[in-house]
C-alpha cells in the first residue's frame, strides 16, 4: 500500500512550556480579539477610499488637478463620440470639470506649488 504522507520528523525534546504559551497566544488571538493590544485604525463610516493624513495640501491639489484633467479628456472624447442630448450632457460635464480644475489650480498657485500652465475658459 502506498503511503500518501511523509513520515513525521524524529521526536525532539521540545520545551512543553513554550508550546503551551504558543498555543495560548494562538487561541487568544483567534477567540478573544478584544484582548489584542493593538487595534486596527477605524475605517471611515462613509466612502470607499481614504486620503492619507501625512500628505500636504500641495500634493493633494496637484493630484486633484491631474485627475480632473484626465476626467476632462475622457468626457471630451466621449462627447465627440455621441450625438444629441447625451453629447450636450457630456459637454456640460466637460465645462464643469474645467471650472473646477481652474479652482484647484488657483488654490495650488496660492500655496506656492508648482506653477500650472495658465488656462482660461
Which labels suit this protein?
3 helices, 121 residues, elongated, mainly alpha, 0% strand
List the helices and strands and how they pair.
Blueprint: H1 16-31, H2 57-79, H3 85-110
Helix pairs in contact: 2-3
Detailed description of the structure:
This protein is mainly alpha-helical. It has a domain of 54 residues. Helix content is 54%, strand content 0%. The protein has three helices and no strands. Helix 2 runs antiparallel to helix 3. The protein is elongated and about 75 Å long. It starts with 15 loop residues before the first helix and ends in an 11-residue tail after the last helix. This is DUF3077 domain-containing protein.
Short overview:
With 121 residues, this protein is mainly α.
Order of helices and strands: HHH
Number of strands: 0
Structural class: mainly alpha
How much helix, percentage-wise, in residues?
Answer: 40-55%
